[in-house]
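Q: Sequence in, structure out?
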Amino acid sequence: MNIQQLKVFIEMCSGRTLAEAAERLGLKQPTASFHLRKLEEELGMELFRKQSRSLQPNDASAELLPYARRIVFLMEEARDTMKALQSEEYGRLRLGSSYTPATYVMPPYFAAYRERYPKVSFTLVVKQAETALGMLRNYEIDAAIVSLGSMEAEGLIIHPLLPDELKLLLSPRHPLAQKTDITLEDMEEETFLLHELGSTSRTLSDDWAAKVGLTWNRVMELGAIETIKEAIKCNMGIGILPYRSVRREIETGELSMKELHLYENRRYICLAYRDEEQLSPQVRAFITFLNHAMQGQPNSMV
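A: Exactly. Output:
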């Protein structure tokens, strides 16, 4: 079993054809096929089943994949660490982020990091928080900036950076926008514009509604914060969104913001990384950079 065999295997498990896997790895197709065949021979079992003209991962592949990802990650990290000994600012940093921090909070910090470490290969993938944490556990990314409602995550260290409480948002033209305090009775017949299931915002919104005894009688479920904001502006309903995603619209008067009845904030923008003794130099440098950059910021928890 060697690193090249595992790289071909990982590419094939991502749904790519053999030709696509070979191209991504800079190999010829027969060479990629050879590596895959030798891996199966060494393990003594088939890892893929033929389906039409493609190869589909089988159950054995699903068991091997987490190990393959970790082995490849550690090999590449070891190489980067050795190179980092020659230059402090060399290497790779793969970050994940959920939508709110990636869009409304982190861009200035990412830009400052890029300026401070121009030689580091910096990549960012934006997913739902739980998906990003899963990628972190699977060694697909090195650290994550995510909005969470809980500070507990198996195998990971979670550091809260900033609170990001949920607020009730309305069009300024909505009749309830003129009320100082909006009661549960006021909201019972309203259409709620909510984030999709699985997002931190939706989970905490559902928890809040259950706690105060509010039933979602009419719901429009939307996949993006920007879509929800535009729908609220058009007075299609009322929404529950993170405060940091709507600050600009509140300041310009495009949206009206109200407090949620009996709401206690549990939502925080957090830094997450694996609970391991040996972190890469790039992850350690990013943690130090972010802690320093956020010190003194309003409501910072660093």
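DSSP finds twelve helices and twelve strands in the chain.
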